[in-house]
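Protocol step 4 of 6: structure prediction from sequence.
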Amino acid sequence: MIAANRTRRATLKTRTRTQRATAKIRREGVATLATHVIAAGLGVKEARTVASSLRKNAAKANATGTPGVSYTHGQRRTCTRYTPAEVAAIAVIYRPRKPAYKIAAARLALAA
């Protein structure tokens, strides 16, 4: 594949992922922490890492979220969905070290 096309496809894929996550949050009002992080601009792998750290800080922020069930590949998983305001409260407590994670935390804090 031509290198320029590869970068274009990657850019489009990232933008699409971010916009879909943002639309889902806007449409439903609540989403999992990973979805909020993807909407903030991180990739799926990084979003899982940040979401795990945010989950640990959720208790400190007294953010309970709403329990739900997500389906993927024919399996169900229990999950907790949070509003943008709850995620902003959690993101204020979160102290990342990586520069990309710091930018995502700032976007999450401003999202509410």
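Step 5 (inspection) to follow. The chain is about 60% helix and 10% strand.
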